[in-house]
Design brief:
Shape: globular
Largest sheet: 10 strands, antiparallel
Order of helices and strands: EEEHEEEEEEEEEEEEEE
CATH superfamily: Exo-inulinase, domain 1
CATH architecture: Sandwich
Distance between the termini: 35 Å
CATH class: Mainly Beta
């Protein structure tokens, strides 16, 4: 569920050092064994808005708060106490400064960098609690999910790591269909009995790799434990082999995250 159509989106290039961000980036090609992270951010910066959906949909507004690293297509992203934070989720449309609402009941965040292919995404996550609003009633999928090889809102992988229904799973979205212009396909079966550890910091990692046979493998780990391994051989549409963005999705969930790091991963077998 997104608030705007994807057409007409303008991307504004700004310097990575904007807003005093403590960002460490290494220029290199994903999956080639380049030493060091491809992208890393620790959010050590003054408290305040990093960026929001207003900056994505109204980039020419001189009041828009634009990030050189992140693009928020729904909701608001704040720095708070040297963490990234969704703010208190609501269903209001944010203004330039998210002063009267966050819109973060539907939270969508992706990197501006779109050349991330065979990679591992790792971060620390602290889930503060699930909510609901008049326009976003409770649903089984409420929680936090990781985007991998994000091509657009219509074509991507996502790994559900904290869900209201206490499952962990991986899905692929293919273009065309009734679910916001696409169709979701479950890759493998869900892993049950995985309740959200509210209030505790979790260490999450998700890797995506293209295999020699053209299939794509995805692994999900929490606190070092492998929770799910799936292999996409073309369910619903061709495996997503192209590099893309990575990011986070939140549904009716207030959460913090930190130490967001992307490193190259070796190709699969």
């Amino acid at each position: 569920m997104l608030r705007r159509p994807a057409t007409g989106l303008l991307v504004v290039a700004v310097t990575v050092g904007m807003l005093g961000a403590a960002i460490r980036s290494v220029a290199g090609r994903p999956g080639t064994g380049t030493a060091g992270p491809l992208l890393a951010e620790v959010f050590t910066r003054p408290d305040g808005l990093i960026t929001n959906e207003h900056a994505s949909w109204s980039p020419s507004d001189p009041a828009a708060v634009v990030s050189g690293t992140w693009r928020v297509t729904s909701g608001s992203l704040f720095a708070d106490g040297n963490n990234a934070w969704t703010g208190v989720p609501d269903d209001r449309q944010p203004d330039a400064g998210s002063a009267h609402g966050t819109g973060s009941a539907v939270f969508r965040l992706v990197t501006r960098r779109t050349d991330l292919g065979d990679v591992q995404v790792s971060l620390r996550l602290r889930n503060l609690g699930l909510v609901s609003t008049a326009s976003t009633p409770p649903a089984a999928w409420d929680g936090v999910h990781l985007f991998l090889r994000y091509q657009s809102q219509y074509q991507l992988y996502y790994a559900s790591v904290n869900r209201r229904d206490a499952t962990v799973l991986v899905k692929k979205k293919c273009p065309g269909g009734s679910e916001n212009g696409g169709t979701y396909h479950l890759l493998g079966s869900p892993v049950g009995d995985q309740p959200i550890p509210f209030g505790a910091w979790q260490r999450l990692a998700a890797s995506v790799r293209t295999n020699l046979d053209g299939s794509v493998s995805i692994d999900i780990r929490r606190n070092g434990v492998l929770l799910r391994h799936v292999r996409d051989r073309g369910l619903g549409c061709a495996p997503i082999r192209q590099p893309g963005a990575v990011g986070l999705r939140g549904d009716n969930d207030q959460f913090r995250f930190d130490d967001f790091t992307v490193t190259g991963a070796s190709a699969g077998g």
